[in-house]
Design brief:
The complex is a heterodimer of chains A (about 290) and B (about 375).
Chain A: H1 2-31, H2 39-57, H3 60-84, H4 89-107, H5 125-143, H6 145-155, H7 157-162, H8 167-193, H9 205-215, H10 220-239, H11 246-265
Helix pairs in contact in A: 1-5, 1-8, 1-9, 1-10, 2-3, 2-4, 2-8, 2-9, 3-4, 3-8, 5-6, 5-10, 6-8, 9-10, 9-11, 10-11
Chain B: E1 2-3, E2 6-10, H1 16-40, H2 45-55, H3 63-85, H4 93-110, H5 118-144, H6 148-168, H7 201-220, H8 222-232, H9 234-239, H10 244-271, H11 277-280, H12 284-294, H13 301-322, H14 329-343, E3 350-354, H15 365-372
Antiparallel strand pairs in B: 1-2, 2-3
Helix pairs in contact in B: 1-2, 1-14, 2-13, 3-7, 3-10, 3-12, 3-13, 4-5, 4-6, 4-10, 4-12, 5-6, 5-10, 7-8, 7-10, 8-10, 12-13, 12-14, 13-14
Classes of the chains: A mainly alpha (about 290), B mainly alpha (about 375).
Chain lengths: ~290, ~375
């Protein structure tokens, strides 16, 4: 029994790691005022990029670097459409998810089912790196000038503009940074958690990462708890399949997400700590 | 702003012809970008589009396939037009389709409903199934402030595993040895088709009627007026005493129910059984978002845009078979088209005028001042 619990915790942390990286990215993007619903798409692109390069070179860390690049590039597309062209952020994020799933399936065809010779352990440097990153991002967000600027871009963009700082640039950087983290999160799935590549292998984890950002109240440290809890929940949904039919268990993380959101947000009306200007394009001269 | 003989001016309400031009240009850009992706995949874009066009638009036998794919897209798309008009971001049409399919399957295989009324009962049950799945996120939003984008998406995954669980478990048909299907529907539970096609015409008629009905609702009724006010100016709606819960529930009963009908059509008209959820809906629920967005809030325009997306899905089949591409290739198109559509939105509010008469790009002093005043061009 003890071994069983320990195993659940370890595996929960293993799957929580990719969730954590992706959720931290979303926290920063949303703190700057931009919703990016394309996490699923950026993760799956990252998963493919990491696998392809790790497969070719035998260097999983190099693969993860490419995954970060792929995620960042995908996020740049979203940033251009919603920040410069001021399009609807929800719809653009959905478009990014569709595009990422489609593109990775198309390009990844030749890699389906290939083995990966050199992989990372489930709990790797990136797990500790994720924890350190969360602490660092928390410190930056609440205790540095940069953090104030990012938060202000999400709360009162006009004020940032008045300070003579470029709101658009701040938002671009936050969104692209968030994309890079989501890419790494996806890459961790394909070179560490389950070293393989199949199309659509993110199976909804990207959406869970977005939900984690929300019920962590956009706080990097709370996202750690959320990510590992959901990692454990996902692991349990595999683990309990010995006794219970798999499908009700697979539903569980998604149902729990709705429940938790309902519990967390019912207090203030809107989700607590939601950036004031979240989802609102910034237009100079309008306030 | 002047570019050679062309003058660019701001305007507030674009006429439909300009909307059409901008939309077509956006779609063309998306197709060009998809061409680049094909090229990087090692397929010449010219050959790809050649194969697609000869396999769909220029193939009399393939034309009905466009309509076949347009049926679920129309039903779900009209529902989304309505939901988006009320500013309810229903991303859950996929799950609502699956619930409709599930409810219809229950009627077809497991209910004591007499054969004569089985088909109508399937449609009614499917509507209710989809509506229930649509109402839950509406209640979650208005009672618990849960963001509907997240909740509708989560409901999609729950619906997916629900159907998957049913066809692998309690509903797995003993006649289907090994496959995760239910038994085939009896003949009385199969929706009639137009001969030699896969067009189940009763569902198509329902879709057309729904488009007309929703257009009437929005334009001519009190409830429709309340929905429009709610969507265009929530603040004003509150002052006018419009109950957001009531309008949102109404919208989501119709939108969810319509998607449910699409699910009935898929299992009752095409597959004649409940099967793996990814085979019941090939992403129609997500593509319906594009149908609605392209239709720019007009339920009747959704008929045209559903046909266009039907063409994309039919093209996906052609590419899968003729070019050995994965089924998800339609997602590449869908994603790019959606990006280009929303990215081009702002171009709608510009007017391009052909004015070669006035020589030189030098504006008069008054014009120069007007165009440089911040906010003056809004």
């Amino acid at each position: 029994m003890e071994e069983w619990i320990l195993n659940t915790i370890v595996r929960g942390i293993a799957l929580g790691t990719p969730l954590l990286w992706a959720a931290l990215g979303e926290v920063y993007a949303e703190r700057s005022g931009v919703v990016n619903l394309g996490v699923e798409g950026m993760m799956v692109l990252g998963a493919f990029a990491a696998f392809a390069l790790a497969q070719a070179t035998g260097l999983p860390y190099l693969g993860l670097l490419l995954a970060a690049g792929a995620g960042a590039l995908a996020a740049l597309l979203h940033a251009f459409v919603v920040i410069t062209l001021r399009a609807n952020q929800y719809v653009s994020g959905l478009a990014l998810t569709m595009f990422g799933l489609g593109l990775s399936a198309l390009l990844g065809r030749r890699w389906e089912g290939l083995p990966l010779l050199s992989t990372l352990p489930e709990i790797s440097l990136l797990t500790y790196g994720g924890l350190a990153l969360a602490a660092m991002l928390w410190g930056v967000l609440y205790h540095t000038r940069w953090g104030i600027i990012i938060r202000s871009a999400g709360e009162a963009p006009a004020a940032v503009d008045t300070m003579g700082l470029n709101v658009f640039l701040v938002r671009y950087l936050a969104v692209v940074f968030g994309g890079a983290l989501a890419g790494v999160g996806g890459g961790l799935l394909s070179v560490a958690y389950r070293p393989s590549w199949t199309e659509g292998m993110t199976v909804g984890l990207g959406w869970i990462a977005i939900a984690i950002a929300i019920f962590a109240s956009w706080d990097p440290l709370r996202a750690v708890a959320g990510a590992f809890l959901f990692g454990a929940l996902f692991h349990l949904s595999f683990r309990l399949q010995t006794w219970i039919a798999p499908e009700p268990l697979q539903m569980m993380p998604f149902a729990v997400t709705i429940l938790v959101l309902a519990l967390v947000t019912r207090r203030g009306g809107a989700a607590q700590g939601m950036p004031e200007a979240l989802g609102v394009p910034y237009v100079r001269g309008e306030s | 702003m002047r570019l050679g003989p062309l003058v660019f001016e701001r305007r507030s309400a674009p006429p439909w012809s300009w909307t059409l031009v901008v939309s077509l240009v956006a779609v063309a850009i998306a197709l060009a970008m998809a061409g680049v992706i094909f090229w990087s995949h090692g397929v010449s874009p010219l050959r790809a589009y050649g194969v697609i066009f000869s396999g769909t638009l220029f193939n009399a036998r393939a034309l009905p396939e466009i309509v076949r794919n347009a049926i679920p897209l129309l039903l779900a798309g009209v529902g989304l037009v309505l939901a988006f008009r009320a500013l309810f971001w229903n991303i859950g049409a996929e799950g609502q389709i699956l619930l409709g399919a599930t409810a219809a399957t229950w009627v077809a295989l497991f209910s004591p409903i007499p054969d004569r009324v089985k088909l109508p009962a399937m449609f009614i049950a499917g509507f209710i199934g989809g509506a229930v799945w649509g109402v839950i996120p509406a209640l979650l939003k208005l009672r618990f402030a849960v963001n509907e984008v997240i909740s509708t998406l989560m409901m999609n995954y729950i619906a997916l595993y629900l159907v998957s669980g049913l066809v692998h478990g309690p509903w797995k048909g003993p006649e289907m040895r090994g496959f995760a299907f239910t038994n085939a529907f009896p003949d009385t539970a199969r929706i009639p088709m137009i001969a030699d096609t896969r067009i189940h015409w009763p569902t198509l008629l329902l879709g057309l009627a729904l488009a007309a009905g929703v257009a009437y609702l929005l334009a001519r009724t009190r409830a429709g007026f309340e929905i429009r006010v709610q969507g265009e100016n929530p603040e004003a709606a509150r002052y006018a005493g419009i109950d957001p819960l009531r309008t949102t529930l109404l919208v989501m009963v119709i939108a969810g129910g319509a998607a449910g009908l699409a699910g009935v059509g898929e299992v009752g008209g095409i597959h004649h059984r409940l099967l793996d959820p990814t085979q019941i809906s090939l992403g129609f629920g997500y593509a319906a978002i594009i149908v609605a967005w392209l239709a720019r809030g007009s339920p009747l325009a959704a008929i045209g845009t559903a046909l266009f997306l039907g063409l994309i899905f039919a093209s996906g089949d052609v590419m899968r078979v003729a070019l050995q591409m994965p089924a998800r290739v339609t997602d590449v198109f869908n994603g790019l088209i959606l990006f280009c559509l929303i990215g081009s939105e702002r171009a709608l509010y510009w007017r391009v005028r052909w004015a070669p008469g006035r020589a030189g790009p030098v504006p008069t002093r008054a014009e120069a001042v007007a165009s440089e005043t911040p906010g003056g061009d809004q």
